[in-house]
């Protein structure tokens, strides 16, 4: 605190200088005040710094805010603004005007033109603050943007291009991840991450730190496995089968529990590497059943698991736990289990915000977490003085043996306070506890308003009235945070707001936030906590003997400063545990973060480089060296390269067509061989692509490289997650799990780089050097040697959009008609006609391919083993359901998300099989609807399956009867 006093004293002198300019700036006209912005920007260009401008810039904003909003910043707000400019956290009490404080550093840092992000916890606050402060910024000639979840890419790009952008923390992070998945630099929405001011910094940088941002893709259907793991968990008992560490909320299987799990899943060793997935499912089921409580961590609404923010009590629709935990909770509550998705991109808040050149924040409570802010974000927490002295009385805790005794006393005290007319705010830690208090209030005949996860939509309305005469407001944790509870003159005279906490929170700062609702801006107020030995914190951190002693109190209570200190020490211990957890998350993510930054930097280079031959050279050398290494064998203790094997690989895999012979490698070392192979690869590649337009080949190279990057980076992320989920078992072998993770992750990353290079070069070579089975375009059909390039689904979408044909209207007739119109329209434009010719060949190739695929699927469908049929139908989620062609289409769209080109092609072929079956079944159904059933026979006419029809004429897999279990080929119809 001594350090803070020195800093506050220094900043106070600067604030005095700003205030001393008030008279001078009051004399300026509106136009003269606005011109200050241009003056400051010119001075920056003339090598002055932001620090040089600070006093005048803050004086400008102070005067502008007074003219526009009618608010003139206090000295303490100016001090807070200086703290934020220096890249620190400003701790400012409730009601001290954080919104106005943020105006000053945002304006000053926006003068550079590099952008400022003001980050809030929800869209309501972003919109509110951008509208209020935006008036001042606009008055001074700066532009303001508002980012939101529902904006289009163009709208987001516009919002981020403004001088100052208001946004929520989650949307900011997701936009960063999405920007690093684009295929054109112009599709990016964000600029450089320059300077961020974070409102409620403790909530975003501390509370949210354990939850990484994740963009998910292709799904994995393991519904039955989740149900099985949940069924096992429900049979296990504590302490015989499981041990629960209440302090860390971890669950462990005992030896007996391990035996039961192995027997349940019919496996010999639960900890065998091949059983990693089963072990992971079991651990998630144990967490869901033994440590997660409904109405505390989550709630069930409309047959869906909705997460609850532990620190605000608000529900978080659209949020889900990752790594299978969400599915474990769904199995526990017997609601529909969503398919688990694979991770396409991920980042933790810690590593995201460390990407900013400068980071600052403001909050009412952060000093208790200063160690974490310094270690993780390199930001100090400076406590700002209040504008008026705090006169709120913080009374000692009342401690009871049971919750019932606590609530009895609580109601007596509330009645007494309410009779005096004072407004009361009751803070609870969960929806469950708020409903318990509500029950007692109802029973006592007391009128009250309640804010929790179930009625958060009325939050602003309730908070607005919470300071009125005889108002009783029941709020889960810090619901209403960001909005002041304003007293009337009458309630101020009666003693102000009385804040009651019905149990201590895990973190001291959450308790301090609750207390801070009273006593804003020198208002009177009181705060008191009611605690019982049955509260979660007490159960976790007090000895059973102590709890037994308190039970003897009956309805009495203890009011002891010593016991209050003991509770504070328990909170400190828990804060330490939570910090360790967040630090552990960060330690592992730091490894992935370094890899992520390397990949994203390379990705940006590829998006921006006009010529990608240098990139291809590096890839070719990587592959060449790998091929040389693969072609080596140990002979008398030394590795010898088998030249013939190497040449065969070059000819077969990379279509080099005997461009190298064995004698070319005589006397060369391994690295020299690799250089020779790379050189020949590039010569051959340039020769084969010499007639392709440069812009076409460059864009094809760019897209091919990016596709390989995204495919293998996604695979790497998921492999790293699986590696991490089981790495802690290394400690049983006396190994450091983090060190092992670093080593194994590095191996995976190096393998990924080789895979990216190999896939890129292979795809480019096969695209131009020999016909593949992929959709393709022939650049010149008249040439004896055809040059072919791979076309992706995105390319097709772009072409259709450009020529004005929707997917729904895509047919051979519509394409021929449209291109005839375009050829006529551009008959005098040779360049456009050439482009149209290429586009037509692409679409023609696609249509020919689709026709061919349909014919193939008709043949395949007629001969398909029942086992194969069942497997495909199950994959599409149609087993046990009525399925129509429309169901098949919807299933394909769902399953194809996040797949690469090869996986999508396989899925498309399977969908055609199921589609053909559904069409054939519909046809047969109409023919046999009178009998109420139809049959599937084999080639000999022998009945294989009988399908019963429903009253509405549909077919259900539930009604399929097996007439004979034979594994012969099956003929449909």
Distance between the termini: 84 Å
Helical content, roughly?
Answer: 40-55%
> Quick one: how many beta strands?
31
Largest pleated sheet: 8 strands, mixed
Please count the helical segments: 36
Describe the structure using short key phrases.
36 helices; Protein translocase subunit SecA; cell membrane; disordered C terminus; Rossmann fold; Pre-protein croslinking domain of SecA; alpha/beta; 973 residues; eight-stranded mixed β-sheet; 6 domains; globular
Structure description:
With 973 residues, this protein is of the alpha/beta class. The protein has six domains: 241 residues, P-loop containing nucleotide triphosphate hydrolases (Rossmann fold, 3-Layer(aba) Sandwich); 117 residues, Alpha-Beta Complex (Pre-protein croslinking domain of SecA), CATH 3.90.1440; 167 residues, 3-Layer(aba) Sandwich (Rossmann fold); 162 residues, Helical scaffold and wing domains of SecA (Orthogonal Bundle), CATH 1.10.3060.10; 79 residues, no CATH class; 108 residues, no CATH class. Helices cover 53% and strands 14% of the residues. The protein contains 36 helices and 31 strands. Strands 15, 16, 17, 18, 19, 20, 21 and 22 form an eight-stranded mixed beta sheet that branches. Strands 3-4-2-5-13-1-14 form a seven-stranded parallel beta sheet, sandwiched between helices. Strands 9-10-11 form a three-stranded antiparallel beta sheet, covered by helices on one side. A hairpin with a 5-residue loop joins strand 28 and strand 29. Helix 14 crosses helix 15, helix 25 runs antiparallel to helix 29 and helix 26 crosses helix 28. The termini are far apart. One of its GO terms (molecular function) is ATP binding.
């Amino acid at each position: 605190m001594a350090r803070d006093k020195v800093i506050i004293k220094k900043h106070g002198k600067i604030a005095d200088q700003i205030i001393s300019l008030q008279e001078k700036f009051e004399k300026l006209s509106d136009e003269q005040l606005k011109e200050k912005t241009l003056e400051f920007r010119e001075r920056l260009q003339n090598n002055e710094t932001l620090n040089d401008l600070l006093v005048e810039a803050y004086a400008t904003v102070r005067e502008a805010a007074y003219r526009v909003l009618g608010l003139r910043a206090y000295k303490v707000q100016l001090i807070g603004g200086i703290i934020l400019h220096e890249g620190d956290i400003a701790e400012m009490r409730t009601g001290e005007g954080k919104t106005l404080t943020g105006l000053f550093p945002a304006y000053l840092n926006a003068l550079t033109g590099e952008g400022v992000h003001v980050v809030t916890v929800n869209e309501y606050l972003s919109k509110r603050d951008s509208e209020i402060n935006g008036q001042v910024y606009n008055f001074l000639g700066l532009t303001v943007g508002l980012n939101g979840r529902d904006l289009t890419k163009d709208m987001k790009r516009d919002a981020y291009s403004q001088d100052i952008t208001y946004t929520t923390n989650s949307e900011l992070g997701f936009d960063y991840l999405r920007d690093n998945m684009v295929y054109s630099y112009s599709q990016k929405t964000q600029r450089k991450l320059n300077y961020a001011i974070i409102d409620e910094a403790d909530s975003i940088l501390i509370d949210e730190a354990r939850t990484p941002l994740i963009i998910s893709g292709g799904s994995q259907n393991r519904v039955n496995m989740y149900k099985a793991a949940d069924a096992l968990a429900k049979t296990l008992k504590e302490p015989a089968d499981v041990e629960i560490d209440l302090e860390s909320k971890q669950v462990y299987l005992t030896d007996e529990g391990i035996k039961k799990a192995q027997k349940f899943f019919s496996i010999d060793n639960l900890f065998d590497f091949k059983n990693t997935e089963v072990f992971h499912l079991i651990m998630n089921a144990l967490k869901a059943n033994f440590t997660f409580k409904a109405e505390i961590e989550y709630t069930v609404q409309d047959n869906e698991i909705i997460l609850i923010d532990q620190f605000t009590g608000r529900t978080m629709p659209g949020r889900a736990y990752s790594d299978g935990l969400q599915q474990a909770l769904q199995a526990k509550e017997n609601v529909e289990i969503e398919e688990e998705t694979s991770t396409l991109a991920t980042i933790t808040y810690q590593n995201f915000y460390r990407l900013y050149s400068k980071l600052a924040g403001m909050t009412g409570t952060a000093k208790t977490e200063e160690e974490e802010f310094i270690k993780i974000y390199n930001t100090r927490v400076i406590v700002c003085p209040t504008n008026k002295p705090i006169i709120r009385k913080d009374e000692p805790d009342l401690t009871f043996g049971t919750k019932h005794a606590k609530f009895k006393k609580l109601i007596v005290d509330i009645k007494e306070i309410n009779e005096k007319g004072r407004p009361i705010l009751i803070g609870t830690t969960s929806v469950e506890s708020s409903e318990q208090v509500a029950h007692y209030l109802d029973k006592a005949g007391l009128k009250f308003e309640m804010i929790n996860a179930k009625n958060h939509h009325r939050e602003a309305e309730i908070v607005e009235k919470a300071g009125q005469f005889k108002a009783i407001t029941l709020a889960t944790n810090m619901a209403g945070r960001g909005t002041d509870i304003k007293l009337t003159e009458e309630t101020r005279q009666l003693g102000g707001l009385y804040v009651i906490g019905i149990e201590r929170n895990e973190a001291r700062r959450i308790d301090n936030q609750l207390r801070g609702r009273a006593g804003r801006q020198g208002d009177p107020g009181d705060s008191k906590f009611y605690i019982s030995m049955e509260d979660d914190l007490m159960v976790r951190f007090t000895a059973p003997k102590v709890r037994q002693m308190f039970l003897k109190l009956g309805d009495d209570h203890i009011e002891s400063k010593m016991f209050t200190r003991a509770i504070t020490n328990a909170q400190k211990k828990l804060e330490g545990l939570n910090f360790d957890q967040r630090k552990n998350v960060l330690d592992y993510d730091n490894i992935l973060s370094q890899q992520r930054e390397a990949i994203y930097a390379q990705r940006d280079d590829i998006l921006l480089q006009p010529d990608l031959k240098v990139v291809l050279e590096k890839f070719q050398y990587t592959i060449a060296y790998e091929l040389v290494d693969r072609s080596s064998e140990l002979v008398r203790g030394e590795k010898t390269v088998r030249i013939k094997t190497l040449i065969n690989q070059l000819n077969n895999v990379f279509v080099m067509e005997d461009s190298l012979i064995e004698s070319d490698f005589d006397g060369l070392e391994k690295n020299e061989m690799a250089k020779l192979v790379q050189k020949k690869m590039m010569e051959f590649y340039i020769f084969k692509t010499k007639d392709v337009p440069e812009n076409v080949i460059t864009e094809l190279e760019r897209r091919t490289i990016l596709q390989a990057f995204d495919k293998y980076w996604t695979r790497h992320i998921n492999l790293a997650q699986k590696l991490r989920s089981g790495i802690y078992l290394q400690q049983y072998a006396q190994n450091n799990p983090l060190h092992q993770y670093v080593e194994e992750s590095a191996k995976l990353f190096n393998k990924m780089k080789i895979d990216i290079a190999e896939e890129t070069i292979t795809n480019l070579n096969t695209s131009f050097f020999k016909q593949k089975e992929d959709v393709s375009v022939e650049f010149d059909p008249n040439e004896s040697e055809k040059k072919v390039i791979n076309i992706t689904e995105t390319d097709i979408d772009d072409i259709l959009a450009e020529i004005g044909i929707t997917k729904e209207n895509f047919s051979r007739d519509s394409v021929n008609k449209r291109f005839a119109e375009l050829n006529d329209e551009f008959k005098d434009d040779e360049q456009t006609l050439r482009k149209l010719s290429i586009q037509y060949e692409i679409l023609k190739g696609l249509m020919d391919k689709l026709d061919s695929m349909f014919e193939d699927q008709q043949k395949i469908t007629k001969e398909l083993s029942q086992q194969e049929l069942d497997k495909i139908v199950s994959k599409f989620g149609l087993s046990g359901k009525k399925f129509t062609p429309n169901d098949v289409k919807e299933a394909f769209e769902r399953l194809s998300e996040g797949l690469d080109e090869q996986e999508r092609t396989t899925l498309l072929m399977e969908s055609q099989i199921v589609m053909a079956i559904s069409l054939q079944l519909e046809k047969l159904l109409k023919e046999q609807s009178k009998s109420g059933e139809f049959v599937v026979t084999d080639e000999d006419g022998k009945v294989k399956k009988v399908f019963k029809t429903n009253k509405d004429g549909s077919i259900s897999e539930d009604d399929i009867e097996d007439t004979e279990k034979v594994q012969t080929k099956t003929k449909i119809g």
